[in-house]
What does this fold into?
Amino acid sequence: MTRQLTWHEEWSLHIDILDTDHRGIIERFAEICARFGPEASEGRSGDALALIGALTDLGEVAREHFEREEELMQAVGYEDIAEHRTEHALLMAEFTDMLRHWRAEQMHILDQDKQESVRDWILDHILGADSEFAKAFFELDDPFDVAQHRRAPAAPDRTKLNAARRGL
Ligand SMILES: [Fe+2]
It folds into this structure.
């Protein structure tokens, strides 16, 4: 039985606009797994075009999220924005490359290995660079005023995030 990726509250950065996006990306991916995973496809051949289409849409949702994130970084004057932008570009290139291979092999079932590749791709972003940004965000004097967001609890604890990740 394939493990389903679900949102973990420990992954929250306590920045609503980003948490909502991250949660949405994870939920969308879970739907794709439910629709195209090995269990769903048992006894039938699957649909390569529909699967690649759904993953392409997921990539577009991620791209839009990266843009929103960069706008927020710009609004608060995040000093590592260039590095983060580069990481977004690399992530998108990585995703496009994955899809290119899977399209070429006419993948019609998202097996466990492939699900894990996408899951790692999503979580590397949320638990890696984004948690670094959240730390810097909460070091600002009045981050939610600067970013026009509501005040939230203290920055997430990196140790907890890492523990959450190990517990996947
Ligand atoms: Fe993000």
Notes: The chain has one domain: 9-158.
